[in-house]
Amino acid sequence: MRCPFCGHGDTQVSETRESDEGDVVRRRRRCQSCDKRFTTYERAEIALPMVVKKDGTRADFDMGKLRASMTLALRKRPVSIEQIDAALERIQEKLLSSGAREIPSTKLGEHVMRELKRIDKVAYVRFASVYRSFEDVDEFRQLIRDI
Ligand SMILES: [Zn+2]
After folding, report:
1. Which residues contact 111 (CB under 8 A, 6 or more apart)?
2. What single-letter DSSP state applies at residue 40?
3. Half-sphere exposure of 80 (CA within 13 A, CB side)
4. What residues does 39 pair with on adjacent strands?
5. How far is the CA of 147 from the centre of ligand 1 (A)?
6. Is 31 helix (H, G, I), strand (E, B) or coil?
7. pLDDT tens string 37-94
8. What is the spatial distance between Cα 50 and Cα 122, in angstroms, rounded to a whole number?
9. pLDDT tens digit sequence for 72-81
10. 127: helix, coil or strand?
C-alpha cells in the first residue's frame, strides 16, 4: 500500500483489527519513509445502501455528507477526529451488516443521533433539534430528560 502522504511504496502494518461483526478489517499502517500513520479498511465489495429521502427520491450513500453533518453538530466541541471517524465507522458497519439495499434518510439520522448521544450530549441535542425540527416544546423536554 502506497503512503498517501509522501507516495512511498513501502508501508508497514502496525495493527490489524476486525470489526465486531467480522466484516471489516481495519489496518493501521506506518510509512517507512515519512513515518506518518494511516488506516485502511478492507471489506467484501458490497455497496452501501441507497438513501431514500423524504420526498421518495434516492441518492447514493455519501459518507462525506454524513461526516459534514456530524462535524457541524460537533463544532467547537471537545471531540477528536478519531472519535468522529470511529462513529462513522460504526454507522457504516451497521449499514453493511444489515445488508439492506435502501435506507430511509430518517433511519440514517437516527444512527447519527445514537452515535452523537454516545460521544457528545451537546452535539446530540444540536443535531436532534435540527433533524427532528421539534413539533413542540414537550418533545424537546422529553429529549433533554432522555439524556
Ligand atoms: Zn510516507
Report:
1. 91, 94, 95
2. E
3. 3
4. 28
5. 43
6. strand
7. 999 988 766 678 999 988 899 998 888 888 988 998 999 999 999 999 999 999 988 9
8. 29
9. 899 999 999 9
10. helix
